[in-house]
Specification:
alpha/beta, four-stranded parallel beta sheet
């Protein structure tokens, strides 16, 4: 499981256990370098940081747990990482599931991050992140905002990764997602090299697994049973 730009294992809450129950499969969630209980990341994220996870974090997880075949699931930017990792490791990837994933840098994405940057300036807001990331909280926030709003990131997309992806894919997206319109799941499904299905969840924003947990778990459970 790949968490979002401000996320961590702890912020998944009981969702990994729910996924395990819904699918009957073992679930591994990890804190990426710089997040949660992981070591600090001394570097700034580069424009290819989404694709880089396939060469940095994931190989160590696979080795530590002796993972051969895997279903990759990610939320938000973690969904992009799941796709990129699946494209990099086609023989090992059984399927990919994305929750509110961004496939490119959309105006709505930029606007949502700009609003969040203003909101995090309020007193006590950084403490919300420190609860999960400790003294890495400022780095976590800056890594999200500065990377996504940087001019060098404006042309980023998952297009190449999607075309290289061979495994089945399920893309779930909220119809009111403040960080991306339905253009993202539509593009993911249209460009994916393997069988792909995009589902737009009604009355749902950027956290489908919290806002529509029953629907999300049912969809993922049914999807995995077809593999």
């Amino acid at each position: 499981m790949f968490h979002d730009s401000l996320g961590s294992v702890e912020q998944w809450r009981d969702f990994p256990a729910q996924i395990a129950s819904a699918t009957g499969r073992s679930v591994i969630a990890y804190d990426r370098l710089g997040f949660g209980k992981s070591d600090p990341n001394r570097d700034r994220l580069k424009p290819d940081f989404v694709q880089h996870e396939a060469r940095s974090g994931l190989p160590f997880i696979r080795e530590a747990f002796a993972i051969d075949r895997m279903i990759l699931l990610g939320h938000s930017v973690g969904g992009g990482m799941a796709i990129a990792c699946g494209a990099t490791l086609p023989a090992q990837t059984e399927a990919v599931v994305t929750l509110a994933a961004q496939a490119f840098v959309e105006d709505r994405t930029v606007a949502g991050i700009e609003e969040a940057r203003i909101a995090f300036r309020a007193e006590g807001q950084i403490d919300r992140l420190a609860k999960y990331h400790g003294d890495k909280a400022r780095w976590v926030l800056d890594a999200w905002i500065e990377t996504w709003l940087a001019p060098s990131f404006a042309d980023w997309s998952l297009d190449t990764d999607l075309r290289q992806l061979c495994s089945p894919l399920l893309a779930l997206h909220g119809d009111h997602d403040e960080y991306g319109s339905r253009a993202h799941p539509d593009r993911i499904a249209a460009l994916a090299g393997g069988q792909a299905n995009a589902v737009l969840l009604e009355d749902c924003h950027h956290m489908p697994h919290r806002e529509r947990p029953d629907a999300v778990l049912a969809l993922i459970g049914n999807f995995t049973r077809t593999l």
